[in-house]
Amino acid sequence: MQAFTATRTSDTPDALWLCEHPPVFTQGLAGKPEHILLPGDIPVLATNRGGQATYHGPGQVVAYPLIDLQRAGYYVKEYVYRIEEAVLRTLAHFGVTGHRVRGAPGIYVRLDDPFGHARLAPTLPGEQPSFLGLGKIAALGIKVSRHCTYHGVALNVAMDLEPFSRINPCGYPSLQTVDLSTIGIPTTWNEAASVLSSKLATQLAA
User: Fold this and answer.
1) How far apart are alpha carbons 172 and 3 in whole angstroms?
2) HEC-encoded secondary structure of the chain
3) What is the average pLDDT across 122-126?
4) CATH superfamily, domain at 2-203
5) Nearest-CA neighbor of 76 among 148, 7, 3, 171?
6) Which pLDDT value is given to residue 59?
7) With helix as H, strand as E and coil as C, how does 144-177 read?
8) Among 47, 121, 183, 192, which one is least packed by beta carbons within 10 Å?
9) Which tens digit of pLDDT belongs to each residue from 149-162?
10) Is 112 left (phi over 0), alpha (psi -120 to 50) or beta?
11) Is the pLDDT at 65 greater than 80, yes or no?
12) 148 catalytic per annotation
């Protein structure tokens, strides 16, 4: 991604890379070592994305949009919103209601009612995010260089979730992480990847 971004020109087509990583913990630029609790046999890699610690592993769709924002005509804040919107619409495809939490990028679901449509109580400016009753189903971490994006979003489909207990996910102690399988959606990696890539392509268009 770094090489692609460093060598692209104003004529380079945008791209969307999808993959499934072997087990790995990654730290963002602001990552604090104390958020990696017990890595065990899983490697920890430093990255230049934003955000704190997260886990990638089999059963998770990782999407890397490589977008020229200047050409697309929108800024970083809207880019993040559009990625989150693509995840929300992917979840809706499977009948799941996703939620944004102010101040905590990513997408969350209600653990007791992942299919209900009740809104979350709003987080007021200056308040710490509340994750009571929520599970994080998609994590977001991006990097922008010369108006061009890399890194991206990870959607949990059908994973071994145990490694998330070895870190403070995204820097939040005790934040619970879930996947589609855990909340009763028996889809495959390929199907989830196909839906997510379609929604990202639509939402990230100029």
Assistant:
1) 32
2) CHHHHHHCCCCCCCEEEEECCCCEEEECCCCCHHHECCCCCCCEEECCCCCCCEEECCCEEEEEEECEHHHHCCCHHHHHHHHHHHHHHHHHHCCCCCEEECCEEEEEEECCCCCCCCCCCCCCCCCCCCCCCEEEEEEEEEEEECCEEEEEEEEECCCCCHHHHHECHHHCCCCCECCCCCCCCCCCHHHHHHHHHHHHHHHCCC
3) 78
4) Bira Bifunctional Protein; Domain 2 (3.30.930.10)
5) 148
6) 98
7) EECCEEEEEEEEECCCCCHHHHHECHHHCCCCCE
8) 121
9) 999 999 999 999 99
10) alpha
11) yes
12) no
CA distance 42 to 159: 15
CB-based contacts of 22, cutoff 8 Å, min separation 6:
57, 58
Distance in angstroms (rounded) separating the CA atoms of residues 128 and 166? 23
Question: Of residues 159, 170, 180, 192, which has the active-site annotation?
Answer: 170
CA distance 173 to 102: 17
Could you give the CA distance from residue 79 to residue 162 in angstroms, rounded to a whole number? 31
Q: Determine the Cα–Cα distance for residues 10 and 13; give it in Å rounded to an integer.
A: 8
How much is the CA Rg of the chain, to the nearest whole Å? Answer: 16
- pTM to 2 decimals? 0.95
**Beta-ladder partners of 61:** 155
Angular region, 88: left φ>0, alpha ψ -120 to 50, beta rest: alpha
- pLDDT, position 62: 98
Of all residues in the chain, the percent with pLDDT exceeding 70 is: 100
- Domain residue spans in the chain? 2-203
